[in-house]
């Protein structure tokens, strides 16, 4: 064994080295070197002993290692047996693995196909979800637009109800005024009759004809004035009744007219595709149609294509509607519908969306263009800051609002009111009602003015009648005093005139016999009888 021969060889080598050293140090240094070598030999011996002990320990370890190696060999045999068994199992597992691998590859191909189909389905689903979301947004915007239209309709209905209530109140007020005037006329008539009767009875038959002539001269103008006043009130009442009937009829036909206008717009949409000039003319024609159906009168209630010169050039709004109190409302009908016609006629969804976006942008650009014209600053026009932008097709505005639900608010912020045939016809009917109320207010003012004039004239007549009565009383007193001077008393003028005749004075004509007789009766009256 290697370790058994290693230690003796080392010892022999040590002795050999010591001998060689001793031999080499022979001479003068031999003794010294010998001592050193002896010391070294001692150290080598000690080292040998240590190495021997180490060798013994290594021998023991070697024996233990051999025993362990034998155990390892036994264990190795068992492991090799198990390894052979495991190798067989591994071969079987590898066969199964290869089979599973082939199956996995097949499953991978199927999985790839399924993943491709799934990706296609997911993409299709995302497209459907996006379209569904878009449809939901459009539906939501449409519902919001419908809600706004409902609110507008409710506001118009409320305004219409308020106008009808105001009209009814004014009519009731007019009727009450008419009744009051009738009652006043009857009372005045009775007072005139009583007053005239009292005056006639008090003044006597001598002034009957004179009083009758004077009263006729005074009463005939008042009677004529009252007759005209009554006819005016009755005419106003008849006009109010006719206007209420006409308003009811127009409200019943308003929805039908709106449907007719919308149907006409849809019928002409395809024919006007791509013809911008024809679209502009047709929009103005639709505006003219709405103006005519609103009941407004051309030249009196509105003007078409009024030309106005400005510093920047000439402007020509499509229509100027006259409002009460010398105000004006500007209407513009020049809205491009080319993109909208493409949107309506296209069958491709992408082209439809592109055309709808262009149509919405065209409406938005027209709003900004109208807002920048500042019609309300034009000389000769007393217009509010809002200008009406007329779109002749109802659905064209609705689709634009569906695409951009902020369009209406932006237009209002730019002082532009977008109107369709339905809303414009309703607004123009309100304008016509405002004119009717203005006319009624003028008639009411005229009626009040005539009533005031009648009252002042009646007051003057009554004061004149009182003055006539006073004058008649004064004249009657003067008459009675003058007659008394003629016939009353013993020295009256009739008696003195009769005495002239008795004295032989020649007279051409006799005195009135009734006065002479009365004077004699006065003379024959007993002195105790009062005069």
TrEMBL record:
Parts forming coiled coils: 34-198, 237-264
Record flagged with keyword Magnesium: no
GO-annotated biological processes: DNA recombination
Domain of life: Bacteria
Pfam families named among the record's database cross-references: RmuC
Family assignment from sequence similarity: Belongs to the RmuC family.
Role played: Involved in DNA recombination.
Name the UniProt record assigns to this protein: DNA recombination protein RmuC
């Amino acid at each position: 064994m290697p370790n058994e021969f290693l230690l003796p060889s080392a010892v022999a080598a040590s002795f050999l080295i010591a001998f060689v050293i001793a031999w080499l140090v022979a001479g003068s240094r031999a003794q010294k070197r010998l001592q050193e070598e002896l010391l070294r030999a001692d150290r080598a011996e000690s080292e040998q002993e240590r190495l021997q002990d180490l060798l013994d320990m290594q021998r023991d370890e070697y024996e233990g290692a051999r025993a362990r190696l034998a155990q390892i060999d036994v264990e190795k045999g068992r492991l090799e047996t198990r390894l052979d068994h495991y190798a067989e199992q591994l071969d079987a597992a590898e066969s199964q693995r290869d089979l599973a691998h082939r199956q996995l590859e097949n499953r991978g191909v199927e999985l790839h196909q399924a993943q491709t189909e799934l990706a296609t389905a997911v993409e299709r689903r995302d497209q459907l979800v996006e379209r569904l979301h878009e449809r939901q947004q459009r539906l939501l915007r449409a519902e919001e637009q419908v809600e706004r239209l409902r609110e507008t309709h409710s506001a118009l209905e409320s305004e219409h109800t308020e106008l009808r209530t105001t009209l009814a109140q004014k009519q009731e007020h007019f009727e009450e005024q008419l009744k009051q005037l009738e009652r006043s006329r009857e009372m005045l008539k009775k007072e005139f009759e009583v007053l005239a009767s009292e005056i006639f009875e008090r003044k006597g038959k001598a002034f009957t004809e004179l009083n009758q002539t004077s009263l006729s001269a005074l009463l005939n103008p008042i009677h004529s004035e009252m007759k005209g006043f009554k006819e005016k009130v009755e005419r106003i009442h008849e006009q109010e009744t006719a206007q209420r009937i006409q308003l009811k009829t127009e409200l019943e036909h308003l929805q039908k007219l709106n449907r007719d206008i919308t149907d006409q717009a849809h019928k002409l949409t395809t024919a006007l595709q791509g013809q911008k000039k024809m679209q502009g003319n047709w929009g103005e024609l639709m505006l003219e149609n709405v103006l005519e159906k609103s009941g407004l009168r051309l030249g009196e209630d509105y003007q078409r294509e009024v030309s106005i010169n400005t510093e920047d050039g000439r402007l020509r709004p499509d229509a100027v509607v006259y409002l009460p109190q010398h105000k004006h409302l500007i209407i513009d009908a020049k809205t491009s519908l080319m993109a909208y016609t493409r949107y309506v006629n296209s069958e491709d969804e992408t082209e439809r969306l592109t055309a709808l976006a262009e149509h919405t942008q065209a409406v938005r650009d027209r709003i900004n263009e109208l807002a920048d014209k500042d019609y309300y600053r034009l000389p000769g026009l007393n217009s509010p800051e809002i200008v009406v932008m007329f779109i002749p097709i109802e659905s064209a505005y609705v689709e634009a609002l569906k695409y951009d639900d902020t369009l209406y608010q932006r237009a209002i912020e730019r002082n532009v009111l977008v109107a369709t045939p339905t809303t414009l016809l309703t607004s123009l009917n309100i304008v016509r009602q405002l004119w009717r109320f203005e006319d009624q207010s003028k008639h009411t003012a005229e009626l009040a003015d005539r009533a005031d004039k009648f009252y002042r004239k009646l007051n003057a007549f009554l004061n004149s009648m009182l003055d006539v009565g006073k004058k008649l009383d004064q004249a009657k007193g003067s008459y009675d005093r003058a007659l008394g001077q003629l016939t009353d008393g013993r020295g009256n003028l009739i008696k003195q005139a009769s005495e002239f005749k008795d004295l032989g004075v020649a007279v051409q004509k006799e005195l009135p016999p009734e006065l002479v007789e009365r004077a004699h009766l006065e003379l024959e009256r007993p002195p105790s009888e009062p005069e």
